[in-house]
Write a structure and sequence with these properties.
homotrimer; 333 residues; alpha/beta; Rossmann fold; 2 domains; 4-stranded parallel sheet; 39% helix; globular
């Protein structure tokens, strides 16, 4: 494996093999297959799960990690091209990234969407530029528009729960959040569910439709697997027969990058908070609740759901470690 | 071993076996008994010795650690139960802790006393709640009222120095410090010395008596080992015949949680700073000086003591590593 | 090897042996020679390359590191001697350093020049004091006046590029930088090039001559190897026949420690930014560009040089890892 930057770069057979390998790794207590190997972790945005799960993954495999963040350089890292560096930043990403990569066997990079321009974010230019600075395998730890580590982990979670592929109903619902969040999770998650052959419904208020580029990509995946993609604002129809309710929030796509207008638009839907009433009348049993975390309790979802039997959010997070170990083994083993 | 959260959970024989094992580990140069094992370290308060000694311990045993602190999550970790998370914090400890635990083989947690209510701190509720979120072994890295890693290390230091058990005189003295510090170190230290069978004197100004709950617990330990517990404000009597003078500071127990009144009360005793005059007339020779660190030079104790022959503070700190390795080996080996 | 604090402590034969060992380590993919060994890294100033290259080095050799910085202690680490610690800092370096050292097999320390007094910085007192607190091998990660890890790495880079020793021309040029930087890099770099037998020219504006102590030390090295040291402000003469142009910036030595005057003095030379015109008429081919990083693009050097064929700055940085592994192997193997 060269890079792991987009789950769509892999065939369904390859994804399934990675998950089977993750299942085997989950059963083993000691592994030293990556003895002395070094994974660099560059976080241009904060992280808790991704950081710690990769650190744990490499220790378990006998290697190790080092972490870089802009705060480590004097006054931060400059990222703009062609700039005269007479301001605060004392170091440019064009030296920092190749140098860091030269110490490591692979590098993971997190650079989430700047959320100023929808077009730019959909192009994922920033992530591609960072990737071009590295001559070692790159792991995408969340870019403007992809989060393959989360998607692979969620795929394994669906397998763990024996959720049907064909005929399985996967609802991704927008929920209220005080901030305008990126599109990487909803976009990559529905693509993952479609790639698995599921019937995917995106439930969201008006003004929050996922962009055509994201839907087209998911529909292409669905067309190859017998799945389907639907968008709706009708909660009852959406949830009817659902096996999975996956909650997440994202920026208004109508007012993308316009924070005051986005704030106003989302404020009208502050009652989009998942609680047990959402599951009334769902005939599938059990219907699980998923979320990529972090989650705001009482805002995105009520405590009784998160702490109840439907919730598999900790399992999702734990599967990050097993699936990442599987990817690392392919990449560096 | 399941958890290591209170030294009182272990019999004296068990403690002594842990120390003998620590002595053996101290002699060995290479050990890989915990190859590929992962220790999570959750610090809700800053740390230097505890953090680095656990990191070194796990490297020496062939495994590794990862560290989590509230700063790592976006805008910190929410800790209150049942709260609607529409403020700054984007993540709740109720997800963060189980997720972190799911990546690790054991977890160490530091959550020192909030110091608002004496009753609450004595109950150690916060630490128990955090512990209840983990289904892997938990190490207490200092809770409101316990610091078993420090106590086990100090016990080993007393053995290293061949301080008598029966008939050994152990003085824990309050010293001035500009801040109102927690009760975990004094409370756990006198319990440790009493468990070792020593005659313990708590030397402190009026208004700074250790609470009844702490004294009762130490007296119970003393009653089983032939030791004793005394509190006094009389320095000459207290130090007569002492083998150990252990210095530390704590909040006024009369004005616990009332910072302005505490500040005023402690300010009257700013001359409680250990110097060589304290040791005049002590017949036991040598009489060692102990402190759990960090220590404020010239405020809690004078430089000539810390840099002189009585001081074993670096030895105490180093024994943290050896005794923690011993605990980790029992827990994860 | 006891300490690695000054390249001048080693004979040229010893340096060359370390580089040959580094070359061998560069070729190997897995090494576990320092299994379970612990390197402490104390950074009193920020770091990116030094930190990550040492972390990677220890992982590759089978051991590990832990990192300490003043921010980790409550309100920072006190460094002054004899002070009454009634201010913010809760911990003194006189306890912190020996304790940290007691957990490790070796300790690396970064304490760059305070830049208040030229005389004090040239004496390197602060670094010597820190070193005196440790009873384990010490690695100098940049002191007031030495940076042996960078020098050893640069020496290897010159070997990698087959730059001639006798008759090789090495130009160290001052370049503009908005801040008054320390003398460690220029001073140690010209000493390294002289020790290698090269003809060294220091190119700098008036008011920025390197101090007599630094020149004398480099001249002594040159006298033993057949090299030479020249200082000039004449760019054309300096660059004629150069094999290497090594750029760096440093404080005005005329106004050392006087920041406003230094600022004014350096401001007059803001056009000292390396571009391709500097290399016109240089007959040696190729003439490489070196820099210890971090570098300010468009200020110290233009993008077309850094991104062009002359630049070996990433190679220099990567060699940090291989040469440090070589030193660690001698020190701890």
């Amino acid at each position: 494996m060269k890079d792991f930057c987009d789950l769509a770069d892999f065939s369904i057979e390859e994804v399934e093999r990675l998950i089977i390998q993750a299942n085997k790794l989950e059963q083993r207590s000691s592994m030293q297959m990556l003895q002395g190997k070094v994974l660099a972790l560059l976080f241009l945005n904060p992280s808790l799960r991704t950081l710690t799960s990769f650190q744990a993954s490499m220790i378990r495999l006998g290697g190790g990690t080092f972490v870089i963040s802009p705060e480590m350089s004097i006054h931060g890292l400059e990222t703009r091209s062609g700039v005269v560096m007479d301001g605060a930043a004392a170091e440019h990403i064009r030296e920092a990234v190749p140098v860091i990569a030269s110490y490591a066997d692979a590098i993971g990079i997190r650079a989430i969407a700047p959320r100023n321009s929808l077009e730019d974010d959909l192009q994922d230019e920033y992530s591609k530029e960072l990737r071009s600075l590295c001559d070692i395998p790159v792991l995408n730890l969340e870019s403007s528009i992809r989060h393959p580590c989360q998607s692979l982990s969620d795929w394994k979670t669906l397998e763990d729960l024996s959720i049907p592929k064909q005929g399985g109903k996967f609802v991704f619902t927008w929920v209220y959040h005080p901030e305008a969040l990126p599109l990487a999770i909803p976009g990559d998650t529905i693509h993952m569910a479609a790639s698995r052959g599921m019937d995917v419904t995106v439930l969201r208020p008006d003004g929050f439709s996922l962009p055509k580029e994201i839907i087209d990509r998911a529909e292409l995946a669905a067309s190859l697997t017998g799945g389907s993609i639907t968008q709706t604002n009708d909660r009852n129809n959406a949830l009817e027969g659902a096996h999975i309710v996956y909650a997440g929030s994202w920026s208004s796509t109508t007012f993308y990058g316009d924070y005051p207008k986005d704030q106003k638009a989302r404020g009208e839907y502050s009652d989009w908070c998942v609680d047990e009433t959402w599951f009334k009348g769902i005939t599938s049993d059990p219907c699980y609740f998923m979320h990529a975390l972090p989650v705001r309790r009482g805002v995105e979802v009520e405590d009784h759901i998160l702490d109840g039997a439907r919730s598999v959010v900790v399992r999702q997070a734990q599967n990050r470690m097993f699936t990442q170990m599987s990817v690392l083994l392919d990449m560096l083993g």
